[in-house]
Amino acid sequence: MTAPRHVGIVACSAEGAALCYRTFCTEAPALLGAAHAHPEVSLHGLSLAEQMDRIYADDWAGLGEMMLVSARKLAAVGAQVLICPDNTIHQALALVRDRSPLPWLHIAEVVAAEAKARGFRRIGLLGTRWLVESRVYPDALEAAGLEWVRPDAAARDAMNRTIMDELVCGVTGPEQTALFAQIAADLQAEGCDAVVMGCTEIPLVLSDETSPLPTLDSTRLLARAALRWAVAG
User: Which of 116, 152, 160, 177 is least crowded, fewest Cβ atoms below 10 Å from its Cβ?
Assistant: First the structure.
């Protein structure tokens, strides 16, 4: 068996990056057949405040350049593929992906493949306002032959406020779970048969046990895809 390949994580928020890193490392032993074993992994993250400045200014090109800074640093330490456990900034990735020194596993493409494999047909979108209003998931889901639904404006604002003021800061509890569960229920009423947790912190408060619809956990799905790539290509 060839040695596993080196994965680079381009971090955004601490909570999402930590969950991705933890999933990658803790699920690897079962795949590798050795206790505590996992492929080499490196993480680089620029200041979240600086990244948010670009988002608030609608400067996606500038944010993409920041992603390339991380990509180059990770390439310099030997990473062979990149992942970013942040859905929102994938809007910027689309602008710079062809200039990256390394290939990327795209979070929405990974989720869309999982949704299709599980037989879902109409996916509700949960996430920040920027993510839900973007084409990140619509493009990936449509390419997989799947339909999608955005929550209404009030729900988008409530999710954005909760994510940015609470989840990103590590504030989690029943109130946050109830909010996302209610939005999932509203999407179920619109004919959705699953919801994508399109913010890497949402899995901290929502799961299949607390959601009225099956969930697509973008954070863990991306980590598992990177793990499979590192081991098997």
Answer: 152
